[in-house]
Input
Amino acid sequence: MIVQIGMVGLGRMGANMTTRLLGGDHEVVVFDVNDEAVQKASTDGAVATSSLEDLVGKLEAPRAVWVMVPAGDITIKTFEALTPLLEPGDALIDGGNSRYTDSIEWGKKMAAKEISFVDAGTSGGIWGLKNGYCLMVGCDGDTFSRLEPIFKTLAPEDGYAHVGPTGAGHFVKMIHNGIEYGLMEAYGEGFELLASSRHFSLDLGQIAEVWRHGSVVQSWLLDLAASALGSDPHLESLEDYVEDSGEGRWTIETALENAVPASTITMALFNRFASRQEHSFSNKLIAALRKEFGGHPVRAGMDA
Output
C-alpha cells in the first residue's frame, strides 16, 4: 500500500529514511532549513517544499508528518510550529530520541486537538538505509494500522512493532540505548585487556573478526568494532572522549524511580563521564589518601 508522508529534517537519518521510503514507492514531501538538502531529495524523487506551511499544504488529509530533527529545543520548536497547521485526524510522528515523558505530554496535547501523536523509537544509524531501521512505535492502534506501510518499508523484516500507547516507543528505545551503553562498555574493557597484555602482542582486528563468526559475543556492535580496528588497529585517530546523548541518564533515572538495580548501565555512563576528564581530581585524592595512610608511592604532578 502506498502512503503519502511529510518528512521534516533531512540530516543523515532523515535523508536516508526519505531515500528508503522513495524506494518503497511512497510519496514523500520534504522540508529542511537547508535548501541544498531539500533539492537533493527532490532530485531523488521527493516533493520539495519551502516551509512547514508549504509542506502541510501539499499533504492530503489525513496527513502524516514525520519529524526527524535533533531531540530537544529544535524538536519542541518544530512541534509548536506544526501544531496549528495540522487538523483533526492528522498524525505527528517523532522519530528522534525524545524523552518518553515528553512524548506522553505531547500525546495529551495533540489528543486535545484530535491529532494523533506517534513516538517512533528508531535504531539503525547510518546503516539504516541499507539494512533498514528497527522501529519501536508508540501510538493508538488505528493510527498504527494507517501508518504501518511506512514502518514496513523503513524496517527490515520483523524489525518494527507497535509496543504500546504514546510514550511507549520512546521508553523502549531509551532502555534499548541503556543496554547499548553496557554492551559497548563491556567490549571496550575487554579489548583494553587484550591490548594491555604483557605476554602477547595481539592483533585486535583479527580477534574481533574471528569472534564475529560463531562466538557467543557476536553482535552488530562487534561487527562495527572489527571494522574500526581493521582500518585503525590502535585507534590512533581517536581521542578517548565519549559523549552521551541523554538516553543513558534517563534510563538510570528510571531505574532509581522503580528501585531496579542497573549497575552495569550506571557504571557505563559514569565511565563516559570519566573519559572527558583530562585530569581527575578524584584520582589525585585517592593517590593522596594512599600516601597518607600507608606511605604508598605517588607520581608527582606536572607543576610539582
Remarks:
- The radius of gyration is 23 Å.
- The chain has a mean pLDDT of 93.
